[in-house]
Amino acid sequence: MEIILKQDIKSLGEKDDIVNVKPGYGRNYLIPQGFGQLATVSAKKILAENLKQAAFKQDKIKKDAEGIAERLTEVKLSIGAKAGESGKIFGAVNTIMIADALKQQGFDVDRRRITFETEPKFVGDYVANLNLHKEVKVKVPFAVVAE
To answer: Thinking of the domain 69-146, which architecture would CATH place it in?
Structure first.
C-alpha cells in the first residue's frame, strides 16, 4: 500500500515521501492519526505540484539570503558595552544587540538566527554567525568597545 506522509516519521520517512507500508499499518494507524494519506493518482499529482511550488519559493528565499550574505561580508560592527578596568563587560553582549546594530546598517536579520563562536565576555573582537538559510551562513566580525 502506498502512502504519502504528511509529517516526518522516524523509522519510515520524511514529510511528502511516498512509502510502501503494510495495509493494516496504513489503514489502522497512519491514515487515522493524520500521519499520511493514500497515494492515489490525483494525490500524487497534487504532491508533485506542491513540491514544485515549494522548490521555487525555497530557491527565491535562498537567492535573497545569498544577496544579503554578499553584502554582509563587508560589514564590521561596533557594540558599546560598559566594562571594568580589566576589560570585563558588565552584563552581556547578546544577539539582540547584534540584530539592532545590523538593523541600523540596513540589514533586517532575526536575532534567533544569530549565534556566537565564543561568548563575548571582554572588550575585543569577536565573530557572530548568521544563519540566513539552511545553506547560507555568514560570519560577521564585531568589536566590543568600552563605553
So the answer is: Roll (3.10)
